[in-house]
Amino acid sequence: MTNPSTLSPFGEQARAKINLTLHVLGKRPDGYHELDSLVVFADFYDRLSFTPGLEDRLSIEGPFGGAIDGENLILKAKRVVSGWLGREISGEFRLEKNIPVAAGVGGGSSDAAAAIRVLLKACGHQGGVEGFIEKAAAIGADVPVCLYNRAAWMRGLGERVTPAPDIAPLPAILVNPRIKVSTAEVFRRLNAGPLLPGEAPSPALADADFTSPEKAAAALQHGRNDLEPPAVAIEPAVERTLAAIRGQEGCLLARLSGSGPTCFGLFPTQENAKSAAEALGREHPGWWVAPVTLS
Q1: Catalytic: which of 17, 36, 46, 111?
Q2: Cβ distance 98 to 59 under 8 Å?
Q3: Domains detected in the chain
Q4: b vs e for 112-143, b when ≥16 Cβ sit within 10 Å of the residue's Cβ?
Q5: Helix or strand (DSSP H, E) at 59
Q6: DSSP 263
Q7: Rounded Cα gap, residues 58 and 9, in angstroms
Q8: 197 versus 152: which is more confidently predicted?
Q9: 3-state secondary structure at position 61
Q10: Given the residues 36, 46, 111, 142, the one annotated as active site
Q11: 3-state secondary structure 122-149
């Protein structure tokens, strides 16, 4: 029998998720909201490793490791994967938490998706993740698209994930003013009307050109984040963050991601994005700012 202590860890990246658009189509009879969102991922991520063993452990480190509270989605994902595969799974997870917590960039959901991928590898599953994407909604609404892990449309409650059109790498910055915005309160403030029969996403972005940052930003003007106005109403610091991003040289577009408070800005080049991040870091030393590429 293999000694668990001699096994090498399996590793995965958990990339930050960005909602380029987020349309709330209406509230369903069950009280949940029907969504239509264009999602991309940043080259900024948490790191997750799993080493099979006899006991379950989860150790967390990194700049935002101490900010996690409530049920950790990694352990929830482990229980769900055990059910999918019909086998007990145990071992040690190690998480390096680099993504801000409760920030609108899917950090916990991306961690859960990374846990699914790493556990499937550890268990020798050969079929890829495609068969589990819709099922992953049982863990959280953003987990399916994070499991897909590339540019996609996220629809329904998050369980319907389809490939997005070709999107050029987008130089960007992520900015979090280190405040808390309650997702539940944002949806309450939105006060969406009922989902109407046959309600469908706007076709404006269906055939849009995303082949350069400039074209992508122009196309995204036809979209929006419906959660941005209520988030701003709850926490004016969100609007100040957006204004600060828009004030940076070369900014093509600034928008809230998810329910916030993290905002993003698109720029023509990586140099523009890096300069903007450095300037915002100097102007607002208490904020979290990161230059990234979205894809």
Answers
A1: 17
A2: no
A3: 4-163 (3.30.230.10), 170-294 (3.30.70.890)
A4: bbbbbbbbbebeebeeebeebbebbbebbbbb
A5: strand 57-61
A6: E
A7: 13
A8: 152
A9: strand
A10: 142
A11: HCCCCCCCHHHCCHHHHCCCCHHHHHHC
Query: Is 274 a known active-site residue?
Result: no
**Helix ranges restricted to H, the chain:** 73-85, 107-122, 143-148, 183-190, 213-220, 228-234, 237-246, 270-283
The predicted structure's pLDDT at residue 127: 82
In DSSP terms, which residues pair with 33 in a beta bridge? 27
pLDDT tens-digit series, residues 279-289: 999 999 999 99
Q: Is the pTM of this model over 0.85?
A: yes
Instruction: Give Cα separations from 98 to 16, 168, 185 (angstroms).
Output: 9, 25, 26
**Secondary structure class of 278 (helix, strand, coil):** helix
Query: For residue 246, which amino acid is it?
Result: R
Three-state secondary structure call for residue 48: strand
As beta bridge partners, residue 34 has 26
Contact 107, 1 (CB under 8 A): no
Polymer length in residues for the chain: 295
Q: Are 246 and 254 in contact (CB under 8 A)?
A: yes
Q: Is 142 a catalytic residue?
A: yes
Confidence of residue 2 (pLDDT cuts 50, 70, 90): very low
C-alpha to C-alpha distance for 83 and 90, rounded to whole angstroms = 13
- Residue 265 is predicted with a pLDDT of 98
Q: What percent of the chain has pLDDT over 90?
A: 87
Best CA proximity match to 14, nearest among 134, 95, 127, 133: 95
Residues 17, 142: contact at Cβ < 8 Å? yes
Peptide bond before residue 261 is cis, with ω within 30 degrees of 0: yes
